[in-house]
């Protein structure tokens, strides 16, 4: 019985972790995007790991994203510890619009997706340039 009681902090931590990740997926809009663009197939293309992006309601995935590019579209995934509620995404290029903006002296690019246009993915101009170069090179570097 004592071993079970001693494991309470671990169980509480894991439970809180799961709740936070699931709430984040709903708040940010990732869950909605996943309804349309969820990908369960392995991604083949150029990957940029440890990237950051913002989404709606001020949610951020700082250093948690892998952004992939190939000739067909854009792949987004998070570290495996966050996969609960945040499945990998694959958005075809035809469904993506990119709009550049300046905010607090920073150049950002807002990606919007045709099937859920009210949920932005906000990335740095630098990452947008990497994505554009990889796309122009047919998903290779």
Write structural notes for this entry.
The protein is α+β, with helices and mostly antiparallel strands. The chain has 4 helices and 7 strands. It has helices at 2-6, 8-28, 30-37, 125-136; strands at residues 46-54, 60-69, 73-78, 89-92, 96-103, 106-113, 116-124. Strand 5 and strand 6 form a beta hairpin. The longest helix is centred in the first third of the chain and has 21 residues, at 8-28. It is globular and about 55 Å long. It starts with a helix and ends in a 5-residue tail after the last helix.
Based on the coordinates given, report the CATH architecture. Answer: Roll
Strand proportion: 35-45%
- Give the SSE string: HHHEEEEEEEH
- Mean pLDDT reading: 84
Shape: globular
Spatial sequence of strands, sheet with the most strands: 1-2-3-4
Instruction: Please tally the β strands and state the result.
Output: 7
Tally of DSSP helical segments: 4
First-residue to last-residue Cα separation:
57 Å
What is the radius of gyration computed over CA atoms, rounded to a whole number of angstroms? 17 Å
The low-confidence runs, each spanning 5 or more residues with pLDDT under 50, are none
In CATH, the topology is named: PH-domain like
CATH class: Mainly Beta
Helicity, as a percent range? 25-40%
Biggest sheet features: 4 strands, antiparallel
* Global structural class: alpha+beta
Say which CATH homologous superfamily is assigned. Answer: Pleckstrin-homology domain (PH domain)/Phosphotyrosine-binding domain (PTB)
Number of domains: 1
